[in-house]
Design goal:
mainly alpha, about 0% strand, globular
Length: about 170
């Protein structure tokens, strides 16, 4: 009888479907931060990280720590753009967080590959990505024309997480 009063009070007949609200937070997010794909970048950094990735990240973080912002303003060359195109990668200013996370996962696998050409290309691509990130930062992200293309944030987070010179 007590159940009937509660059901009547809340207009619950027992036939409605009850859905549980799923959390919007990631295990790696702050309690005030909504879930984002940036936590995926942090998870990528927690696994095995190739030495080439660590060296590029350390270089990026040391320059950022000493100068505040990167001072290198050179864009990538046509050969570097062609290497990205060979593997169907966009330039950093036209990449989403999801694309960069998938690319970082691939580059980590390729960096430990037995195929020397693939390994060399993977190491070159991570260097290109570091150069692109420094270029975007030096130009104060003015190259980014759309807020959807924020893959640089994932790369920056990845570098911060794997570098031993984290700010």
């Amino acid at each position: 009888m007590g159940d009937r009063k509660i059901n009547d009070r809340f207009n619950f007949t027992g036939t409605e479907n009850i859905y549980t609200q799923q959390t919007n937070l990631s295990a790696l997010s702050d309690e005030h931060e909504k879930f984002s794909s940036l936590s995926t970048s942090a998870m990528l950094a927690k696994g095995e990280v190739p030495l080439s990735h660590t060296l590029v990240a350390d270089n990026y973080m040391v320059i950022k720590k000493i100068y505040g912002t990167p001072v290198i303003k050179s864009p990538i060359t046509l050969q570097e753009k062609a290497l990205l195109g060979k593997y169907d990668f966009n330039t950093l200013e036209y990449s989403t967080i999801k694309q960069i996370n998938e690319e970082l996962a691939l580059l980590k696998k390729w960096s430990v590959s037995l195929d020397k050409a693939l390994k060399a290309d993977a190491d070159n691509i991570i260097q290109i990505r570091g150069k692109e990130l420094r270029f975007l930062e030096a130009n104060r992200y003015t190259m980014i024309t759309n807020e959807i293309y924020n893959g640089y944030m994932a790369l920056q987070r990845y570098f911060e997480d794997i570098s031993k010179y984290n700010l």
